[in-house]
Amino acid sequence: EVQLQASGGGLVQPGGSLRLSCAASGFTFDSYTMNWVRQAPGEGPERVARLFGGGRTDYADSVKGRFTASRDNVQRTLYLQMNNLKPEDTGVYYCAVVGTIWRGQGTLVTVSS
Fold first, then answer.
1. Strands 10-12 and 107-111, how do they pair?
2. CB neighbours of residue 59 within 10 Å
3. What average pLDDT does this structure show over 69-98?
4. CA–CA separation, 2 and 4 (whole Å)
5. pLDDT, position 78
6. Could you tell me where the DSSP H helices lie in 1-113?
7. What is the pLDDT of residues 11-27, one digit of tens each?
8. Which of 17, 47, 73, 90 sits at 20 to 30 Å (Cα–Cα) from 64?
9. Dihedral over alpha carbons 42, 46, 48, 49 (to 10 degrees)
10. C-alpha span between 83 and 65 (Å, rounded)
11. DSSP 8-state code for residue 29
């Protein structure tokens, strides 16, 4: 059974930082490209970062320079370091396996003063 468990969300003030994790199991983690995705209230999903197996990472323009995504293929975990957070970063963040229907339930990030 594929499981993708995101954690690390919470309430943070604008300008603050959070680090999200996504623990994966049930599939060959290092063989797949992975996405971090977020969904703001009332909005559609937005891909935040795409992590390729070879180490390359692509970012949405909205988070470039503020977010850093990484993966640990030994620990089977994705990370998303989020700095200089803005209110528009609020949403549910989840990880997903590219090319499949596998995705986690997500963790809520709220950026508010």
1. parallel
2. 17
3. 96
4. 7
5. 96
6. none
7. 999 999 999 999 999 99
8. 73
9. 150
10. 9
11. G
Q: What type of residue sits at position 45?
A: P
* Six token digits for residue 58: 């692509």
What CA–CA distance (Å, rounded) separates 38 from 109?
9
Closest CA to 83 of 68, 62, 104: 68
Rounded Cα distance between 12 and 60, Å, is: 21
Quote the pLDDT of residue 100. Answer: 93
103 secondary structure, DSSP code: B
Return the H-helix or E-strand segment holding 67. strand 67-72
Nearest to 89 by CA among 36, 22, 51: 36
Measuring CA to CA, which residue among 77, 35, 79 is closest to residue 59? 35
Could you tell me the two tokens for 15?
């300008």
61-88 CB burial, b ≥16 within 10 A, e <16: eebeeebebebeeeebbbbbebeebeee
Q: What mean pLDDT, rounded, does the chain reach?
A: 95
